[in-house]
Amino acid sequence: MDKKYKIMLTTFSSVPFLMVLGNSMLIPEFPKLKAALDINQFQVGLFITLFSASAGISIPFLGYLSDRIGRKKIIIPSLFLYGLGGLIAGIASVILKENAYPVILGSRIIQGIGGAGTYPIVIALVGDIFTSNQRSEALGIIESANGLGKILSPILGAAIALISWYALFFSYAILAIPIIIAMWLLTEEPDDNTKEQTLKEYLNNIKEIFKARGIPLVFSLLGGMVVLFLLFGLLSYLSDILETKYNIEGLIKGLVIAIPIFFMSTVSYFTGVFLKKEEKYFRHVLSLGLIVNAIILSSLSFVDNLYLYMGLISILGLGSGLVLPTVNTLITSSSSSEQRGGISSLYGSVRFIGVALGPPTFSLLHRISQKAMFFGAAGIGLISSILIFLFLDEDKIMSVDEDNQEDASDTED
């Protein structure tokens, strides 16, 4: 890989790093946001929900537009929107103070739309630029940046919040500026990188995939949505009790929240390596990951000791790390290269919906009781695991004889 492509790849890698901060950097500071804005746990969870829901809705449309007009013409304005949303939230927080909540909610919708046009489109652009031999390496580097962002974001959020709670929002705009400039000046895309595909054809491609892959594809999508629903719902709750119950704040709290994410990212890598050699175990690995999460969630309702609590949550990160790379490969292997953009966009939307539903659902269940929250979430994980084990046929999904697995990606969040 020559110098020009290394520079472009470095620039591309900064985009998923920034996008991951959208949710994960705020979660450790939920208690500060609640106190400053005089809101409850459900209301603060909407900061995650509205960002993720708007991203989930926007991804298919932006994916289609990127095919029509080019990737950079989507990525750069999307980065601008992402930063603008943060700037609006920051200014509103300074001027309106405790009355800024409605404006911040609106700004999170803007940020979510911007986030939808960043990482998923960068993945497509990397696939356009790099040849099959280089593509696997390039996507691996992009995925590493995504994982690094996940691990560092709680720590970075805690550090920035030491300045002020509203500094978190300004940081999105500050971090977006150099990435916008780099994307504009240091990257390029192939000249023939647009397709004269109508919206009807785009939707028909997705329809044809579901006709061919059917129920197994539905349950693959379900696995990705459920595991992120459980993870982000639990992280939202964890952020609250670390301060209220265990008196852990600041950087230490950010480090604690990063622990399960570190386990998830590490296990994701090794799961991908394992599945590359043992393709017949996709269904088993996916079901196992969800069963692990269900067992851990039900166990948490009986635990008070902080160290045991964090040990169990780390194992939940392990379970999530089994699920995500498995689903990534199943989804990207379910379609031909011409259809992959549509199904990948749909997968990205489903993942964001899982993230969006997690915090408010956990909050509502917790109003009933802690046991209702943990056992309810565990039940969702267990039922999903059983359905996936019974109905997911990896041979039916992975019947497209192309280099699809090289395009496996993780768009969360």
From TrEMBL:
It is a multi-pass membrane protein. The chain crosses the membrane at residues 7-27, 39-62, 74-96, 108-130, 151-184, 217-238, 250-275, 281-300, 307-326, 346-365, 372-392. GO terms for cellular component: plasma membrane. Its main location: membrane. It holds the Pfam family MFS_1. It comes from the Bacteria. The keyword Ribosomal protein does not apply. GO terms for molecular function: transmembrane transporter activity. Keywords: Cell membrane, Membrane, Transmembrane, Transmembrane helix, Transport. Residues 8-396 form the Major facilitator superfamily (MFS) profile domain. InterPro entries: MFS (IPR011701), MFS_dom (IPR020846), MFS_Efflux_Transporters (IPR050189), MFS_trans_sf (IPR036259), Sugar_transporter_CS (IPR005829), Tet-R_TetA/multi-R_MdtG-like (IPR001958). It is found in: Cell membrane. Belongs to the major facilitator superfamily. TCR/Tet family. This is Major facilitator superfamily MFS_1.
